[in-house]
């Protein structure tokens, strides 16, 4: 369906209404501030700590298995030493006796090496247990912080989400009523100026948020509402103070319903 042809004044009023709606959405999002990002960062940190904890616990199990393996090796070496000692009683010559003696000495070295490794593993276990304890403390602290921040965010969302969605819908409705050329210009200006203010009223002889004075003749043209005029310094669309005040009162009544 074709858009209804609007007068310049109607366009200016619609654009200023749209600005008031979008500025209200900006305010709501500013109240949330960095909270959503903080919550996301905390969630990532908690997930990372959980993964680290899992890996640490898993590495403990690996070390435990290594200790069991070394203990089994010690028992095997002891068993072999006992067997070789028995065999020495039945040797036929010194060469066989010396050969078995070397085997017994080798098994003794295997036991010493295995004992050394077990001590090293136990030391690693103590170190890892300390790191696990520290990680658990850090995880608990981060989880509590995350819970607090989520609660804070949920409370803000509960207060503002319904209004924000209603305003977003209303913003889209207003854009549908304004010609695409003006909406495109409005969106472009909003992205390029401070605070997202694309449509501003004249305040004390200057455009809102600017220190550059607007010549009296231009101010008269703006007040006549015969054409869309932009600030040559900021590119913002300008409206007169009376129109702005009228639209603020109108939109304040709309906002009070949300």
Automatic annotation (TrEMBL):
UniProt entry tagged with the keyword Repeat: no
Source organism, top-level taxon: Bacteria
TM annotation in the entry: none
Pfam (any one): Zn_ribbon_9
Keywords: Coiled coil
Residue ranges that the Swiss-Prot or TrEMBL entry lists as coiled coil: 39-177
Residue ranges constituting the C4-type zinc ribbon domain according to the UniProt record: 207-238
InterPro entries in the cross-refs: Oxidative_Scav/Glycosyltrans, Zf-RING_7
Protein's name according to its UniProt entry: C4-type zinc ribbon domain-containing protein
Species annotation: Confluentibacter flavum
Lineage: Bacteria, Pseudomonadati, Bacteroidota, Flavobacteriia, Flavobacteriales
């Amino acid at each position: 369906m074709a858009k209804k042809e609007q007068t310049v004044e109607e366009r200016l009023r619609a654009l200023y209404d749209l600005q008031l709606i979008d500025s209200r959405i900006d305010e709501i999002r500013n109240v949330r501030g960095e909270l959503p990002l903080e919550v996301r960062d905390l969630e990532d940190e908690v997930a990372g700590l959980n993964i680290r904890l899992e890996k640490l616990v898993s590495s403990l199990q690996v070390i435990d298995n290594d200790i069991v393996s070394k203990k089994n090796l010690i028992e095997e070496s002891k068993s072999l030493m006992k067997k070789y000692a028995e065999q020495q009683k039945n040797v036929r010559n010194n060469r066989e006796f010396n050969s078995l003696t070397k085997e017994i000495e080798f098994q003794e070295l295997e036991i010493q090496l295995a004992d050394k490794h077990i001590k090293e593993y136990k030391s690693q276990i103590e170190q890892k247990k300390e790191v696990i304890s520290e990680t658990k403390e850090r995880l608990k602290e981060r989880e509590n912080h995350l819970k607090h921040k989520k609660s804070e965010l949920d409370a803000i969302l509960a207060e503002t989400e319904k209004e924000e969605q209603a305003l977003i819908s209303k913003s889209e409705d207003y854009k549908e009523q304004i010609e695409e050329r003006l909406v495109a210009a409005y969106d472009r200006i909003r992205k390029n100026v401070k605070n997202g203010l694309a449509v501003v009223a004249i305040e004390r002889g200057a455009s809102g948020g600017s220190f550059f004075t607007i010549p009296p003749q231009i101010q008269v043209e703006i007040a006549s509402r015969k054409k869309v005029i932009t600030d040559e310094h900021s590119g913002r669309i300008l409206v007169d103070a009376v129109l702005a005040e009228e639209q603020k009162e109108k939109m304040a009544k709309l906002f009070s319903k949300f």
